[in-house]
Specification:
Blueprint (H helix, E strand, L loop, with lengths): L3 E5 L2 E5 L3 E6 L5 H13 L10 E5 L4 E2 L3 E4 L4 E2 L2 E7 L4 E8 L1 E2 H4 L3 H6 L3 E3 L4 E2 H4 L7 E6 L2 E7 L6 H10 L7 E4 L15 E8 L4 E11 L6
Parallel strand pairs: 3-15, 5-11, 6-17
Antiparallel strand pairs: 1-2, 3-4, 7-10, 8-9, 8-15, 9-11, 9-12, 13-14, 13-16, 16-17
Amino acid sequence: MFPLHFDVGGRTVEVRVTTLLNAGYAGRSQEDVAAHVAELAELGVPAPTRTPCIYPVAPYLALQTDVVPVQHGRTSGEAEWALVITEDDVLLTVACDHTDRELEVHGVAWSKQAGPDVLGRKAWRLADVEDHLDELTLTAWAGEAKIQDGTLAELLTPRYWLDELEARGLAEPGTVLISGTIPMASGVDQFAETWQVDLTDPRSRDTITCRYQVAPMPEPLA
């Protein structure tokens, strides 16, 4: 597996991902989550047996890349943050979970496995931003259209997930957890040629960005 490299305050930190987890239905208001589950069910997406969820996916799907190859035109990203456990610290960065929407109606876990989690190349120490996490913003663009815009106050906190990982024996160096996402704007075409997600700290005015192009693969010869 290729290691990830993060710029943390001018210092390069290398992480070899051993466990990759995608949180799902991870809104801080579980009443809103229940309403969202009902909406998805109307679209044919199977409802989870509990919320929030954790979907383990292959560690090699954690990428820092500028291009995401796709098999068809119905795939899209999601604005998220990522928790990265290193040998001696816990980092926070931006992430975009690229998901196969055709496969999602057959199984959310399957759809997560069909695309990568694209992470930023820069990260903050969690300890440096934890006292004002709810002020941090997540913003996503599908092509040139802003499709998501919110704050980390809408999602379960990194500390919540660290406690979950501790309880499950997964709070180990090399574990990466992707947060789950915030609501998408209605009427925006999510099936775009590019995706960009920004994680911004309004206090420091620092932004971590991941941006990539969606590249259709050749038709199969079968």
